[in-house]
Design a protein that fits this description.
alpha/beta, Rossmann fold, 6-stranded mixed sheet, 4-stranded antiparallel sheet, 7 helices, 10 strands, binds adenosine-5'-triphosphate, binds magnesium ion
Length: 219
């Protein structure tokens, strides 16, 4: 079974009389274990596509199957559960909660599901990401690259079916951006499925499969 199946997916934004087809009748699959990049000009629909797959945005038409479940047909509660358990999201601006420590930020998705953090698992993930000595820090005490590593740890803690990353290197300097890209490649080698939106050709070129989107169409 594919991890993601996108079928005839469209998203229309209406602003008064003016309509934008941000995603226009898109169909593709992502198999388990793939690392796929999405590139395209600003405004081409990359974020909208990712948000549809992540269940953050609702589709105007079409379907998104995650591990065989059509998230476009799920009710509000089911969708929230699917999002928490199947999707690991990494954003350009990290989206960490400033008043929580690194450890608290990482285990947040578990708390939302009333689950306890498995100490060994938490140690394994934080060691993998080089955060083991930062667990009691606040986000404001971290570098950009460290913040993004915390966001990746948070995305991994629920063992999601896929990591959706929307320009995760966009707010980082070159060295830190390269480091985050290397981490995503390492994670993928461990078997994690990743969909990566990026403006950087050189990062897209590191991905075994590249999707290019223009005016909402995948080519
Ligand atoms: N909430 C919204 N309401 C109205 N229009 C929107 C909304 N979100 C996105 N759009 C429009 O949909 C189109 C695609 O936007 P999207 O954010 O997906 O592009 P993008 O490829 O991620 O661009 P960037 O590279 O700048 O992040 C754009 O024309 C944008 O203006
Ligand atoms: Mg975007």
């Amino acid at each position: 079974m594919n991890t993601v199946e996108v079928r005839n997916l469209s998203k229309v934004f209406a602003q008064g009389e003016y309509k934008v087809k941000a995603v226009d009748n898109v169909t593709f699959d992502i198999a388990k274990g793939e690392l796929v990049s999405v590139t395209g000009q600003s405004g081409s629909g990359k974020t909208t596509l990712l948000n549809l797959i992540g269940g953050i945005e609702t589709a105007t038409e079409g379907s998104v199957y995650i591990d065989g479940t059509d998230i476009c047909r799920a009710d509000e509660k089911e969708l929230a559960r699917l999002r928490r358990q199947k999707i690991g999201y990494v954003f350009q601006d990290f989206n960490l909660i400033p008043i929580l420590t690194v450890e608290e930020n990482i285990i947040m998705p578990l708390l939302l599901d009333s689950k306890k953090a498995d100490r060994e698992e938490l140690d394994r993930i934080t060691r993998f990401l080089g955060l083991e000595n930062r667990l009691t820090h606040l986000p404001s005490q971290l570098s950009g690259g460290q913040k993004q590593r915390v966001a990746i740890a948070r995305a991994l803690i629920n063992h999601p079916s896929i990591i959706l990353a929307d320009e995760p290197t966009g707010n980082l300097d070159r060295a830190m951006a390269d480091e985050i890209m290397r981490l995503l490649l390492d994670l993928n080698r461990e078997g994690i499925t990743v969909l990566l939106v990026t403006h950087e050709e050189r990062y897209a070129d590191m991905c075994p499969r590249k999707l290019v989107i223009s005016d909402g169409h995948i080519s």
